[in-house]
Amino acid sequence: WQIKPEESLFIYEPGLGPDNYSHPGHIPVFTSDLKISAEVRSACGDNTACLFDAAATNDTAIGLNSMMTGLMLEQERNLVGNAPPNITGDPRIVAFLGKPVLYTMVVNDADEFNVTLSPMTGAQLPVTYTFTKTSHS
């Protein structure tokens, strides 16, 4: 299932490659393999991240840290009230000097908020936009 070194998309320092970061003997740990102690269950409750990390590392503090990090991220997301939009399109832009460029992208917001697109500040190119709204009226 592993890639061949020539298929890697990463850039490595000279003399290094995928084999330097590969650990074929690694045996992954799954939740079903862990023995979760009563102490860990008491500390973590039903928080999966806490249960897994505490049991996998044999350190309840690490599990509690994972739980707190997850809770803080959830609180921040609730405060913001919106996840970032999903923007898709061809990653390649083909341009020719003096010719207009047409680039099509699709922007979806799972939370159904309006999305505003604008050029980066300091853009040196003349930019013309055409929008076609397809949903969320």
Question: How would you describe this structure to a colleague?
Answer:
The protein is mainly alpha-helical. Helix content is 28%, strand content 6%. The protein has helices at 38-44, 48-57, 60-80, and strands at 86-89, 105-108. The chain has a two-stranded antiparallel ribbon. Helix 1 (38-44) runs parallel beside helix 3 (60-80) and helix 2 (48-57) packs antiparallel against helix 3 (60-80). The longest helix has 21 residues, at 60-80. It is flat, with a radius of gyration of 24 Å. The two termini are 45 Å apart.
Outline of this structure?
The chain is mostly helical and 137 residues long. Helix content is 28%, strand content 6%.
Key terms for this structure?
137 residues, mainly alpha, two-stranded antiparallel sheet, 3 helices, 28% helix
Write the layout of secondary structure elements.
Blueprint: H1 38-44, H2 48-57, H3 60-80, E1 86-89, E2 105-108
Antiparallel strand pairs: 1-2
- As an assembly, this protein is single chain
Radius of gyration: 24 Å
Average pLDDT taken over every residue: 84
Main β sheet profile: 2 strands, antiparallel
The arrangement of helices and strands along the chain is HHHEE
Unreliable residue stretches: none
Strand content: 5-15%
Helix content class: 25-40%
Rough shape? flat
Query: What separation lies between the terminal Cα atoms?
Result: 45 Å
